[in-house]
Design brief:
With 199 residues, the protein is of the alpha/beta class. α2 packs parallel to α3, α5 crosses α7 and α5 runs parallel beside α8.
């Protein structure tokens, strides 16, 4: 979302915007599932980023650095907590000064971080998200629930966009709505396991 909004800005300072996700797992209605072909290390990240610019790129971080030299670039890396921090520092050390970074991570990255806490959605936005996702998934009965009922559900889901999405996917997959609310272990595991493992 951020990358596209910057890209669409007339006076964007960037000639190149690169985005990479390091997410290795995704949350499905039936639990946590591995993402095949996910980026898992520095080499994979360099190749993934390079292929955005040149089809068939298979070089190293140093090759990527040479390609980006002198080009004002914004590099967005999502789910930074999924790889070892030393990998990111190696990439940072290799890339030229014309590259700016935006990282998302559930775990801090030390002295260079500038934290932007993301709180829960407002009740109004949570309800709108709930209804629009329910309609998009063909769950018309869920979309037509009363505001009071949806308020209870989104409250139990902590007004979290991910939790709302997971809940509706679970219901779509056949889970009883009350049981999905009562058993959020897969959701919580997905949200905190990487943080827990890092600690």
């Amino acid at each position: 979302e951020v990358a596209y909004s910057i890209l669409d800005t007339q006076d964007s300072p960037y000639e190149c915007i690169l985005w990479a996700s390091l997410k290795a797992e995704r949350l499905t209605a039936s639990g946590v599932a591995a993402i095949s072909n996910s980026v898992r290390d520095l080499t994979g990240m360099a190749i993934s980023l390079g292929q955005t610019i040149v089809e068939g790129f298979s070089g190293s971080a140093q090759d990527l650095a040479e390609m980006l030299d002198g080009i004002q670039t914004l590099l967005i890396i999502d789910n930074l907590e999924s790889i070892d921090g030393t990998e990111v520092l190696r990439l940072y050390d290799n890339l030229p000064d014309t590259v700016n970074y935006l990282f998302t991570s559930r775990i801090g990255v030390g002295q260079s971080e500038r934290k932007f806490e993301l709180g829960p959605l407002s009740n109004r936005d949570s309800e709108a998200l709930f209804r629009s996702l329910a309609r998009a998934r063909g769950l018309d009965g869920m979309a037509k629930l009363s505001a009071e009922t949806i308020g209870i559900v989104i409250g139990r889901l902590r007004n979290s966009p991910l939790a709302i999405r997971w809940y509706l996917l679970s219901v779509e997959a056949g889970e009883r709505p009350d049981l999905a609310l009562a058993n959020q272990s897969a959701l919580l595991d997905f949200c905190v396991r990487s943080v827990f493992n890092a600690m």
